[in-house]
Design brief:
Elements: H1 3-6, E1 7-11, E2 17-21, H2 23-27, H3 33-40, E3 50-54, H4 63-79, E4 83-87, H5 97-103, E5 109-113, H6 114-122, H7 130-134, H8 144-147, E6 160-172, H9 173-178, H10 190-204, H11 217-228, E7 234-237, E8 240-243, H12 248-263, H13 275-283, E9 289-293, H14 297-304, E10 311-315, E11 325-334, H15 340-355, H16 361-373, H17 388-398, H18 410-415, E12 420-422, H19 429-445, H20 451-467
Parallel strand pairs: 2-12, 3-4, 11-12
Antiparallel strand pairs: 1-2, 5-11, 6-9, 6-10, 6-11, 7-8
Helix pairs in contact: 11-12, 11-19, 12-19, 13-14, 16-17, 19-20
Length: about 475
């Protein structure tokens, strides 16, 4: 199978395009197709007394978030007196998921990443919810092309996309102004990003551009850069996955980092930043530009006090050879051992907590009012989980409550019309990122670092892990 045939192309109604590896498509269908046919015809009693367990309960050190979570559960149970909710802190962990599923200790529903849903479908480790989705007023209105990420080759549905994102260029608008740059015309190419980095450092004395390099985040961002420079980091042919790190796209990405550090001298002095440290520094105004998920507003502005007027968001820089921008999102997973009544109740919660505001004006207004009351943002840029038309309705409903300067994100919002989203690597993603962290660190700390040697070493290391599966 060639790189092109390995890619599964899904055109979204919102204009976004998703390119993803479809394990089920490559292997000829889901291993659970027989049981799926039976499950797809199941029905539930929406009035039945039922108890479900939710994963992802916020931890005790997240006091405000935990309080909001508990209030939401109480409000939901008041609306649905026949549904009792129990919650726990369990989160998806690929290392323990299978054992917990076999042991019966997983909750009824929790979040899984885009990258893993197809392998869960292929192994029969997720409930078929086709009937419930097709017959539901809210779920049937979700973007069908985005929802295709959760479907097998036969069109059965195995999860609900509750949020989607792309990577972006995060920049400090005030530092841009101080450097004589136009904050409303952020860089779009790597050359422009390099020029902006140099200008910020020369005019303000702050770091013009840097990325986190530890905790697998350096490898994650370097993978994003490789996509934007024209190359995947894995290719799949049937059941065989080939790790492809020593590529032109990866070499170009490392050359950019080298030039920021050694030519422009605009990368600051700390080359072992972790993700939190990087966020602390950009929120404090010490970094002009960085790369990260485009959904970083809450972390920087709400969590760290960055002035919202300073927060800049632009599309991920790209070369002429770009195959797309790394993206992903959150999919609500449902336990295959759950009863039909439990599945219905779990989907009611998913709609209530994550989705209903997009398709119901009263729910949208109630959500916006509660956000404003808690000093939380309304109107942040996001990849819509519904169609263009439905999302426009949603924005209209919440318009009186929007409290973020959406005009500052114009470039990013406009880019979603024809964005191409490429997911994270399907095999050993975190191990791949871990192998690339030292590559990023070496390039930023050794001017004579040998790109080819570094990439080939990492490639061999990750390939051995993939082959050992």
């Amino acid at each position: 199978m060639t790189q092109q045939s390995w890619l599964r192309t899904i055109g979204l109604a919102s204009g976004v395009l998703i390119i993803s590896a479809s394990l089920a498509a490559c292997s000829g269908g889901s291993a659970s197709s027989d049981s799926s046919d039976e499950a797809a015809g199941a029905v539930c009693d929406p009035e039945a007394d039922v108890t479900i367990t939710l994963g992802e309960r916020p931890t005790s050190d997240q006091a405000a978030t935990l309080d909001a979570w508990e209030n939401s559960i109480a409000a939901f149970e008041e609306l649905h007196p026949n549904i009792t909710i129990e919650d726990e802190e369990t989160k998806y962990d690929v290392a323990t998921f299978s054992a917990m599923l076999v042991g019966g200790t997983l909750p009824t529903t929790l979040q899984v990443p885009f990258t893993d849903i197809q392998s869960l479908i292929d192994r029969g480790q997720v409930a078929d919810i086709s009937t419930y989705v097709d017959n539901d007023d809210v779920l049937s209105q979700l973007n069908p092309q985005l929802a295709a990420v959760t479907q097998d080759g036969d069109g059965h549905t195995f999860g609900i996309v509750r949020a989607a994102y792309t990577m972006g260029l995060i920049y400090n608008r005030t530092l841009f102004e101080e450097a004589g740059l136009d904050p409303d015309a952020p860089p779009t190419t790597w050359d422009e990003t390099l020029e902006a980095a140099e200008a910020v450092t020369e005019k303000t004395g702050e770091t013009g551009f840097i990325i986190p390099t530890t905790g697998n985040v350096g490898g994650w961002l370097l993978t994003s850069m490789a996509y934007s420079n024209g190359d995947l980091v894995e290719q799949t042919d049937g059941d065989e996955t080939t790790v492809t790190l020593d590529t032109d796209g990866m070499q170009a990405s490392l050359q950019f980092l080298h030039d920021v550090r050694w030519t422009a001298n605009a990368a600051g002095a700390n080359f072992l930043l972790d993700n939190n440290g990087s966020r602390d520094d950009i929120a404090a105004g010490y970094i002009g530009q960085t790369l990260n998920g485009a959904n970083l507003y809450n972390s920087l502005v709400i969590g760290r006090g960055m002035p919202k007027e300073d927060f800049g968001l632009a599309p991920f820089p790209a070369s002429d050879d770009a195959i797309g921008v790394l993206g992903g999102g959150n999919i609500q997973w449902f336990n295959p051992s759950a009863t039909p009544d439990q599945l219905c109740a779990a989907m009611e919660w998913t709609k209530y907590y994550f989705l209903e505001r997009y398709v119901d004006e009263d729910a949208a207004v109630a959500w916006a009012e509660s956000q404003v009351a808690d000093d939380l943002p309304v109107g942040l840029p996001e990849v819509p989980v519904v169609s263009d038309e439905q999302y426009a309705d949603f924005l209209g409903w919440i318009e009186p409550y929007i409290n973020v300067p959406r005009v500052n994100y114009t470039a990013y919002i406009d880019s979603l019309a024809d964005a191409v989203i490429v997911p994270e690597p399907a095999k050993k993603a975190q191990e791949l990122y871990a192998a690339l962290d030292p590559v990023v660190q070496a390039v930023l700390t050794r001017e004579d670092a040998d790109f080819t040697e570094l990439l080939q070493t990492a490639q061999t290391q990750v390939q051995d892990l993939v082959d050992a599966e």
